[in-house]
From TrEMBL:
Gene3D superfamilies, alphabetized: 1.50.10.10
Classification via PANTHER family: GLUCAN 1,4-ALPHA-GLUCOSIDASE, TREHALASE
Taxonomic superkingdom: Bacteria
Taxonomic lineage: Bacteria, Bacillati, Actinomycetota, Actinomycetes, Propionibacteriales
InterPro entries named among the record's database cross-references: 6-hairpin_glycosidase_sf, 6hp_glycosidase-like_sf
GO biological process, alphabetically ordered: carbohydrate metabolic process
Protein name, per record: Glucoamylase
A GO term for molecular function: hydrolase activity, hydrolyzing O-glycosyl compounds
Length: 400
C-alpha cells in the first residue's frame, strides 16, 4: 500500500517541481528584464493636431494627425529629423529619416520630404558606409557605434519614392556603388550593424533586406535618369544579391543565415534553423519589394512567432524575453499587411497602436507587459510607419 501510494503521489511531486522551476525562471527573467517605463511624453510646444487635416481621411484620423504633428515637431528647420526629442534619441538616423521622407511623400508633403532628403544629402558619405546616426547639425556621433551598411538601402528607397533621383543623383550613385562594393564573391555583404543597434559577427537580414530594396530603387532611378551603365551594373548586383539571399536565408528568412533544416516529423513542413524570426522580414515584401508567396508565408510566420502576450510585436525571436512590444516593428507588420491586402491584420495592429498611445497622443517606442507606454515618445520611425500603413490601407503604395 505504501509503495502504491508513493507511485500515486510521484507525478504530483514532479509537476510541483516543474512549476517551481518555471516560477524561478520567470522571476529571474523579470529581474534581468525589469519593466520599462516611459522616458518622456510629447514634444514641448507642439500642437495637438496637424495643421492640414485634409491630408488624412479615414478610420485613424486622430492617430495619423498626431503622428504628423509629432513628425513636424521632430523635424528641425534644417531638415534634420530627430528619432526622438530627448537624450540618446536626439539624433538623426538615416533609416528613420528615410521613412519620414517616404511618409511625407506618400501624403503629398513633397517640400517637407525634400528638406529631409537635403539634410541626408549634406551628410552623405562620399565613400564608405553611412554612420549609424548624425547630430542635428550634421556631425558624426563619436560614441563607438559602428557604421551601418543598411543606410545605403534606406536612402536609395526614399530618394526613389520621392522621385528625387535627379536632384540627388550623386547621393544615389555613391550609395548604390557602395552596396556593389560590399558584395563578396558569394553575393553577400560582410556583417554590419543594423536596426538592432549592436555589433554583429554574422550577416543579418536587417542588412540584406534594405540593400535589396535600395538596389531595386537605384535601378529605377538610373533608368529614369537615362544612366544605362549604372542601371546595368546595379541590376547585376541586385540579381546576385537576390539569388544569394534566397539561397542562404530562404525559405523562412530568419535573422541570420539558416545553418540547417529541421524535419520535425514526416509530413510536417521543414523549418530552417538560423537566428530566429526577425520583423525585418517584412522588407522582403510589399511595399518594399514585389510580392512573392514564399515571402508572404515567411512574414505571416514571423508575425505569429513575434507577437507578444500584450498584443504587439517584438523585434526578433532571439530578442530579450521580457514580454515587451516595440511599436516600430508592430507598425512594420501593419504596413506589410496593408500593402499585401490583408486589411484585417493591418486594422488590428493599427488599432492596437492607437489604443496604446501616451497621454499626449504620442506613439511611444515600446508598450510594456502592463500595457503601459514605455521608452521615448514620440518616436519618428513609428510615426512615419503609421502614416504609411494608414495610407496603404486606402491606396496602394508604389513598390520598386
Amino acid at each position: 500500500m505504501r509503495g502504491g501510494s508513493r507511485h500515486r503521489w510521484f507525478p504530483y511531486a514532479v509537476i510541483a517541481l516543474l512549476l517551481a522551476i518555471l516560477a524561478a525562471g520567470t522571476t529571474s527573467n523579470l529581474i534581468r528584464n525589469p519593466q520599462p517605463r516611459l522616458v518622456s511624453d510629447g514634444i514641448p510646444g507642439r500642437t495637438a493636431t496637424h495643421a492640414d487635416s485634409a491630408l488624412v481621411s479615414g478610420k485613424y484620423d486622430d492617430l495619423v494627425q498626431h503622428a504628423l504633428a509629432d513628425l513636424d515637431g521632430l523635424t528641425l528647420p534644417n531638415g534634420a529629423t530627430l528619432a526622438g526629442w530627448n537624450g540618446p534619441w536626439r539624433y538623426v538616423w538615416p533609416r528613420d529619416a528615410s521613412f519620414v521622407a517616404v511618409a511625407r511623400c506618400a501624403i503629398g508633403q513633397y517640400d517637407e520630404a525634400l528638406d529631409v532628403l537635403a539634410f541626408l544629402n549634406r551628410v552623405r558619405p562620399s565613400t564608405g558606409r553611412w554612420e549609424a546616426r548624425y547630430t542635428e547639425t550634421g556631425g558624426r556621433v563619436d560614441d563607438g557605434r559602428a557604421s551601418q551598411l543598411d543606410g545605403s538601402g534606406w536612402v536609395l528607397w526614399a530618394t526613389w519614392f520621392c522621385r528625387a533621383g535627379d536632384r540627388y543623383w550623386e547621393m544615389v550613385r555613391e550609395s548604390a556603388d557602395q552596396i556593389v562594393t560590399e558584395l563578396a564573391p558569394d553575393g553577400l555583404p560582410a556583417p554590419s550593424s543594423d536596426y538592432w543597434e549592436r555589433r554583429e559577427t554574422e550577416l543579418t537580414l536587417g542588412t540584406v533586406a534594405p540593400l535589396l530594396t535600395g538596389l531595386r530603387s537605384a535601378v529605377r532611378i538610373a533608368t529614369d535618369q537615362h544612366q544605362p551603365a549604372e542601371a546595368t551594373r546595379w541590376q547585376a548586383a541586385l540579381e546576385t544579391l537576390s539569388a544569394a539571399t534566397d539561397r542562404v536565408f530562404g525559405p523562412d528568412y530568419p535573422r541570420t543565415p539558416a545553418a540547417a533544416t529541421s524535419f520535425v516529423e514526416p509530413g510536417v513542413e521543414p523549418v530552417s534553423i538560423g537566428g530566429g524570426a526577425d520583423a525585418i522580414v517584412t522588407v522582403l515584401g510589399p511595399p518594399f519589394a514585389p510580392a512573392r508567396a514564399v515571402v508572404s508565408t515567411a512574414i505571416d510566420r514571423a508575425h505569429a512567432v513575434l507577437t507578444q502576450p500584450n498584443g504587439g510585436v517584438t523585434p526578433g525571436e532571439s530578442w530579450r524575453a521580457d514580454g515587451v512590444s516595440w511599436t516600430p516593428q508592430t507598425a512594420l507588420f501593419a504596413l506589410s499587411a496593408a500593402a499585401r491586402g490583408d486589411q484585417a491584420t493591418a486594422n488590428t495592429l493599427l488599432s492596437w497602436l492607437d489604443q496604446h498611445r501616451t497621454s499626449t497622443g504620442a506613439l511611444p517606442e515600446k508598450v510594456n507587459r502592463d500595457l503601459e507606454p514605455a521608452g521615448e515618445a514620440p518616436l519618428a520611425w513609428t510615426a512615419a510607419l503609421v502614416v504609411l500603413a494608414d495610407t496603404a490601407l486606402q491606396n496602394p503604395l508604389p513598390t520598386p
